[in-house]
Design a protein that fits this description.
Blueprint lengths: L13 H10 L4 E4 L3 E2 L2 E2 H4 L1 H13 L3 E5 L1 E2 L3 H6 L5 H23 L5 E11 L6 H21 L4 E7 L6 H11 L5 E5 L9 H14 L4 E6 L9 H13 L5 E3 L1 H4 L2 H10 L1
Parallel strand pairs: 1-4, 2-5, 4-6, 6-7, 7-8, 8-9, 9-10
Antiparallel strand pairs: 2-3
């Protein structure tokens, strides 16, 4: 998974990145957002999409395009004074408008395989029944709009847990809330320090047994120094050992570090 930032467009070298990803055996790149707050990358950097799609096709990779990311999303959903229905309707309008703009450039490109929804679903903010119902209505409304716009494309969304809801209750909630064909990306929580590897494994096992639709675990790697320290690779390994199926790596800028790739190549 890739998070676009303004600095990525100063000296972009998309070919070398896609070549490296292909050499490592990756098949899909998920772009977490195309619009972040007021930054509409698809408008400000029109060459960006063309370059990404060009090299995705050259190296036989698929692209999932994220839509709109509100920088205040987590503050909004965690604040119980937020008028949640109105807020979700705002997200709906912006997401659909973004998808319409992007589809004009992407719809006929064979590397474009679907959409990613930025609005991560945690195990705390939606426990209230009214909020949970509003979330479900929003997601189904978005599902209808995106399927009408691009009927043959995948739709993905992430969720994460921090032990605020028991695994059995969390999987039940997501079974009832997400549209049937959506692909769930379930974050481990270990990389963000939210749960222990043992707790992560419990959640993953519960989802493997009880989640009714397609899902993939997300292995997280964070670094704010520009380098991947040894401790972070150990965190990657702990998450890797939790998973029991194919997985998503978050985020690609950290996984390009030479130190990480050397260790990754030895173990895969």
């Amino acid at each position: 998974m890739y998070q676009p930032q303004e600095k990525d467009f100063i000296y972009p070298n998309w070919e070398s990145r896609f070549k490296l990803l292909s050499q490592q055996g990756f098949k899909t790149v998920i772009i977490q957002w195309s619009s972040y707050g007021t930054h509409r990358f698809y408008e400000k950097h029109p060459f960006w999409i063309k370059s990404i799609m060009k090299y995705a096709k050259q190296y036989n990779m698929e692209i999932i395009f994220g839509l709109y990311a509100d920088p205040d999303y987590f503050k909004k959903i965690e604040n119980h004074r937020t008028e949640i229905k109105n807020y979700l309707q705002k997200l709906y309008r912006i997401n659909v408008a973004t998808a319409r703009r992007l589809s004009l450039q992407l719809d006929k490109d064979k590397a474009f395989k679907g959409w990613y929804i930025y609005d991560e679903i945690n195990d705390e903010a939606w426990q209230d029944a009214v909020r949970g119902k509003a979330l479900k209505a929003y997601l189904y409304q978005l599902d209808h709009a995106l399927n009408s716009l691009t009927p043959d494309k995948k739709i993905m969304i992430s969720a994460y847990f921090s032990s605020k809801t028991a695994p059995e209750e969390y999987v039940k909630f997501l079974n009832e809330t997400l549209p049937e064909k959506w692909i769930l990306l379930l974050q481990s929580g270990v990389g963000a320090g939210l749960v222990t590897p043992q707790k992560c494994q419990t959640y993953f096992k519960t989802f493997s047994a009880a989640y009714h639709h397609q899902w993939f675990p997300v292995i997280e790697l964070f670094s704010f120094s520009g380098e991947i320290p040894k401790a972070d690779y150990e965190i990657y390994e702990k998450q890797y050992n939790c998973r029991n199926k194919n997985y998503i790596l978050f985020s690609w800028r950290y996984f390009f570090a030479k130190d990480f790739l050397q260790k990754y190549n030895k173990s895969n």
